[in-house]
Amino acid sequence: MSATLVTTAAPANAQQLNDTVEIVLTEARRLGASQAEAAISISQGLAVTVRLGEVETVEHTRDKGLGLTVYFGKRTGSASTTDFSAAAVRASVQAACAIARHTAEDAAAGLADAERLARHIPDLELCHPWHPSVDDAIVLARACEDIARAHDKRVSNSEGASLSTHEGLEVYGNSHGFLGSVAATRHSLSVSVIAQDEAGMQRDYWWTTARQRAGLEPPEQVGHVAAARTVRRLGARKLSTRRCPVLYEAPVAGSLLSHFVSAVRGGALYRQASFLLDHLGQQVFAPFVRIHEQPHLKGGLASAAFDSEGVATLARDLVSAGVLQGYVLDSYSGRKLKLPTTGNAGGVHNLTLDAGPQSSGAGLAELLRQMDTGLLVTELIGFGDYSRGAAGFWVEGGEIRYPVEEITIAGNLKELLGSIVAVGNDVDLRSSLRTGSILIESMTVAGS
User: Is the pLDDT of residue 126 over 50?
Assistant: First the structure.
């Protein structure tokens, strides 16, 4: 058993962080900066890991950091520090100013336009502190692992169960007069186990994450699902190379959304490194597809009233009726593209792929029946454009027949997005990308 305690002292409330940001902005003005911005954060948490019933790690964390950027016209300098004393903060500003005086001008540099900054910051109910004792955290993690290990006699080993809590406070301010703070929490529980039979070993896992303790799945449920997913992979076979329909299970379907987001992100667009460059207003998906941001969902894992530049977030469609309606831009990439920021500095906010084309969507079982014969993908390995190692199950007659492994699925990303034929209502809510299972009309599956 090991224990780690990071004891860095941290300010106790938002006002102290506000005061530190004000020191940055005042010092930057004094040194002649035309604009300045600062983001400061403190956080604390607990993480416990149990393996084979024994406590492996107990970690208490307390972290803090300050990042700042100053602008001298179109010249930029940045610095960071974990020392929040007034002297250290002023020294960091001075260092950033010294850097800015030696950098080349960049016409796209600068703060977000003042008129786009958030004027109203609603309470999105993101902060639900949970402070279990170490003993209570161990009990929950151990219960999760015990259920997984007892699920089936073929579960022969464990990679451990972990419980973590996190509580943080962030403040962002800039010389346009914006000052906003966000307090947020995130808690999680996970377990990974190994099963073995005469054919070999397999591993799988399950996890739950939420803003508040009440939103977590019970430890017994997490353990049961992890073990069931592991055991069902035993006896996996290889497939011969073929083309067939592919159904991405919801927990891995978000990877397709991730590739889409990467293609419409400002950096890829202005570098002309995106297959969706100059595609605004064009049909990219099937007509039933709608992809939209929901930044103001109460308690959402990616909810935010403003982005990391202070820009107000808005609910909006990126794709409507299959047509690309918008990009994912911060102020810098927007200026590069001669477009306004979309409030996405720092990422997307609860980006959601709606179920369809059925009026109410369909669950995984219905999508399996719709696919009839093909590959159900439950795990992806590696990255590519687009070639991924995969594991899952071969499906015939709408029913899972046997597990498969050591295969690769491949295709052209633009063609893949355009060949989505159905999206399930079994939405995975555990990330900023929210989607159910996704059925692709046809892909190349490379095997033996």
Answer: yes
Pairing of strands 54-72, 2-5: parallel
Structural domain total, the chain: 2
DSSP state of 203: E
69 shares its domain with 114: yes
Same domain, 312 and 346: yes
Cβ atoms of residues 217 and 191 within 8 Å: no
Sign for the pseudo-dihedral over CA of 338, 343, 348, 353: negative
C-alpha 158 chain-centroid distance: 26
Asked whether residue 2 carries a pLDDT value surpassing 50, the answer given is no
Looking at residues 372-398, what average pLDDT do you find?
A: 92
Structural domain of residue 281, as residue ranges? Answer: 242-446
Residue 94 lies in a domain: yes
The model's pTM: 0.94
Reduce the DSSP state of residue 394 to 3 states and report it.
Answer: strand
Helix (H) or strand (E) holding 375: strand 374-381
Pick from 278, 295, 311, 288: nearest CA to 414: 278
